[in-house]
Structures are given as structure tokens and as C-alpha cells.
Amino acid sequence: MDKRVSGQQASWRYATEQVTEPDPIAKARAHSLELGIVPIDPAIGAQCAVLTAASDALNLVEIGTGAGVSGMWLLRGSARGVLTTIDAEPEHLAAARKSFADAGIPPARARFITGRAADVLPRMNESAYDIVLIDADPEHILEYVAHGLRLVRVGGTVLIPRALQNGRVADPVQRDPITTAFRSLIHETQGSQAVMPALSIVGDGLLQLTKITE
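RESULT FIELD:
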């Protein structure tokens, strides 16, 4: 193996292993796995919390609630923020509610919506949110990102974890629809005049799109 590639992999592993996940989030992670939900990587969660804190985000949207792991990371970065989280599975929302309650997050700081994101997002106010995190239904990623960019204000950011799809996006041989969609999303946003993009390789990748024009 090329020494540079080996070094990059070692650095990636080291960075990932350095994250200390708060106990309430770690408990929510364990519950997620019991339910068969794969939550975002702790390193991705920590990065989302930093971005939320750095932008002083108050109005947050999450597409894909799971058992509350990603939502708790977002709220960790925003002491006064309010999260709207959307999931089609009532069981997931119930698990997230319990995770939030166990963590001492006041009910007023989280709004849980049961429904398909494709049905809920068109009814939400545009340019009204600071952060939109998208972690659901990868087959609809392009549609959800379009909605996310409509919902965030100028200066707001859309966060897309799992952007590298377990290495498939970087492998040109992989041409299934989901991989192709993520690859197209990354490529097209790099040349966009409407967003400031950045792609992190921590975890399974985090694509960050900060809106710079309407």
C-alpha cells in the first residue's frame, strides 16, 4: 500500500477514535443499534455540533430522527436551539423522545413530526432555518438537499452525513443509482455559485453546504 494512503487511513482512524461521546448520546446510540438503526458516527456528530455552535444556530431541522443521536449532537452545539425532527417511523420518534427526556432536554426544544419527508418538507417555511441535517432515504438525497437549501437562510448550512457511502462514491466502478446521486451531488455543488461546499472524510463523510445566495 502507498505510504501516503496508509498514513491518511491512520490519521482518519485516529481522528475518529478521539471523540468522546457524552453518556446520554452514547445511550441513545446503544438503543439505536438495538432497534436496527445505524446512527451517525461520533466524529460526524461532533463536527455537526461544532458547526451548529459556530453559526450560533437556533432553528434546526433534521430529516431522519432515528433514536435521537444526531438530534442530540445538534442540540449539544446550540444551547438555545429548537430542533424540528422528521421521521416516518413512530417507533423511531418514540425512542428519540425517550432519549431526549433521559438527557434532560426540555420538551419545548424539540418538535417531533411523524411523516414522509417528501410530504412534510414542502409545507415548511423557506429561508427560516439555520441548519438542516439530512440522514434519511438516500434514494431521495437530491430531492431532500433541494428542499434543505430552500429551507435554510443565507449563511445557513445543509449537512449531509454518509456522503461517501462506505467508499462507494470514490470508486468509479460503482454506478448504482444511490452512489451516482451522491457523486453527482458532490460534483455539482463544488462548482455552484449558490453554496460554499466542503467535504469531510471523517466517519463516512460529511458534505457541508453553506448557502451564500438565494
